[in-house]
Design goal:
With 255 residues, the protein is of the alpha+beta class. 33% of the residues lie in helices and 35% in strands. The protein has two domains: 93 residues, Alpha-Beta Plaits, CATH 3.30.70; 129 residues, Roll (Nuclear Transport Factor 2, Chain: A), CATH 3.10.450.
């Protein structure tokens, strides 16, 4: 705050809903952190109207001007669904700053960012699980990048193609409308998530399954999977993904 010499305020209405707006904001955090001369940015929502405001604190009027003229600065209205006729933009010189202590403010800002990241991560994981249960492979794979890594007991899968291979085979055991999946636990801290679940399918019984996720910019960067996978006796226990002979379990009275 002490180094801020110029202030930009932008108020607008958006075509996006709050969840989309928050998701884009979290994905762009590192981009905003990389803006030369940008000291801090605040995201605000007016309670009475729902209007959105951004308050930018810059080291100098020159860095503020450079941001507005940059490709990234010019792309922001489109990315946030800004209704251009509602935009009100103002620029100020910073005269004086009064606060209760920079360390306290930094801690509050960090805690708020962590909470926002956690909420976004939780939504991503829940949508990810929904895509899997709906057998929507293309939507599921959109959560990964070529740098993503999935680690299982049997093998490590790296990149889109290998992870897609894993889920293509795994989904064959989880046909939509014939499988039962229950999420028992989901714990999220920032961009780190942990889940515990159990499931029953026409070919498998999984009384215990668990995954961990590390996310970055709205994508799953790293994931681990482990579980107690049991095959029903009528099904051949060899699988190219699970790659082992599973324990057998007889299906009696639908159990």
């Amino acid at each position: 705050m002490k180094n801020a010499k110029a202030v930009l305020t932008v108020k607008f209405r958006t075509r996006l809903d709050r969840d989309e707006l928050m998701k884009n904001g979290l994905e762009d955090i590192d981009l905003f952190r990389g803006v030369p001369g940008l000291v801090e940015k605040y995201y605000l929502t007016e309670k009475s109207t729902g209007d959105i405001s951004g308050i930018y604190l810059f080291e100098s009027p020159e860095s503020l001007k450079a941001y507005l003229g940059s490709d990234f600065g010019k792309s922001v209205p489109g990315r946030y669904g800004v209704i251009m006729e509602t935009v009100r933009m103002e620029q100020y010189d910073m005269d004086h700053v009064l606060n209760g202590g920079e360390e306290e403010l930094d801690e509050k800002t960090s805690a708020r960012d962590q909470k926002l990241r956690g909420a976004a991560s939780k939504k991503i994981i829940k949508n990810h699980l929904k895509s899997f249960q709906e057998n929507e492979l293309e939507t599921l794979m959109a959560d990964y990048t070529n740098e993503s890594v999935l680690i299982t007991k049997e093998r490590t899968y790296t990149g889109i193609d290998e992870i897609c291979y894993f889920f293509t085979h795994l989904m064959s055991h989880f046909p939509k409308d014939q499988s039962w999946f229950k999420l028992d636990t989901i714990a999220v801290e920032g961009e780190f998530a942990y889940i515990v679940w159990h499931a029953d399918t026409p070919t498998l019984s999984i009384p215990f399954g668990t995954d961990t996720f590390i996310l970055k910019e709205g994508k799953i960067l790293q994931q681990t999977f482990a579980g107690d996978v049991r095959y029903y006796s009528r099904y051949s226990p060899f699988d190219p993904v699970l790659n082992r002979v599973g324990s057998f379990k007889s299906r009696v009275n639908g159990i």
